[in-house]
Amino acid sequence: MINETPNLEYLEQLAAGDPKVRQTIFDVMVKEYFADYQEYKAAIAQNDVKKSITFVHRLKHKIGFLGMEYSYQIAHRYEEELRRNSDRFQSEFEAVLLKIQEFINSTPSL
Amino acid sequence: MKCVIVDDELLAREVLSHLVLKTPDLIVTETFSNAIDVMKYLNSNPDVDLIFLDIHMPNFSGFDFVQTIKNPPLIILVTNDKNLALEAFNYDCIVDYLVKPILPERFERAMERVRMKLHVGYIKPVDSNDPQEIYVNIDKRLIKIDLNAINYIKANGDYVIIKTEQQNYIVHTTLSKLQEKLPKTQFLKTHRSFIINIAKIIDIKDSTVLIGKDVIPVSKNNRAELIERLNLI
Fold first, then answer.
1. Are B54 and B84 contacting, i.e. CB atoms less than 8 angstroms apart?
2. What are the chain A neighbours of B15 within 8 Å (beta carbons)?
3. Is the CB of B80 less than 8 angstroms away from the CB of A25?
4. Tell me, what's the ipTM?
5. Which domain holds residue A35?
6. What is the extent of the structural domain holding B221?
7. B112 and B155 within one domain
8. Which chain A residues touch B10 with a CB distance below 8 Å?
9. C-beta atoms of A32 and B10 within 8 A
10. What is the pTM (predicted TM-score) of this model?
11. Rounded-to-integer distance, Cα B90 and Cα B93, Å
12. A65: nearest CA in chain B?
């Protein structure tokens, strides 16, 4: 697996040097990321495949937002596998989520 | 231009709102987390020019929305999935397709497409009460002509020539009589000898419009109405 770390290049592009915009969008991303993560974990625990697909899809957008192109592909493949009732790529996907959480926790304020 | 944003993800709505804010000729009138609510909104707000529409939404997808809505404004699809692009262009109202995360330059290119489409006179599909075709009497036969296929109609003595994409029809009638049978939302008299299908305009220069390869005159008296009917920026 490629060792990829999250970055805020896309957010910087959006904000174009405006710290308020950067902070606002980052806060929305973090809040929704954790909400989606909780829903995903609950769906997996309940073996609710449809709901799992929904939240993998939503988390995929956050992975793309954080510039993780390879990890985005992992998420995409995992989403497709879930549609076939397979859990292939689950551990790789969850490793990506762990990296994102570490990144968010180490970036308390912009 | 007025737009609405439809996406079940708050982050996507926030990013799009920010990109719209950076676009001087565009304002967001409302954002929605599902497609059902936007359908209700459009019923009471028909002046919306553009929808940013997420395809992947639970219960009612963006494509469900496009297939259901009557008289849609222009739509830019927004999604994570590049593979749906081909299906998107099956619909005339869909002008572009943005993949998340949306880059500002790519967003601006999409807006250029919207401006171009509005500039050349995108009109919402005709109301279901409007006729979709006319029957004309040619050599004792009633021939059906699809109104959407008509480029323009030209008066020629006691006859009119109906120019369609495929062929020309010469009909014994007057331009005024024919005009009464045509939907006013779709057709406009630009000159005493010409009625045009507004959706077929390629460009407008001075006192002429280009339709297909033909240059059609626009008289001074009709120019103001033509300009009014276009969504000029």
1. no
2. 14, 25
3. no
4. 0.93
5. 9-105
6. 133-229
7. no
8. 28, 31-32
9. yes
10. 0.67
11. 9
12. B101
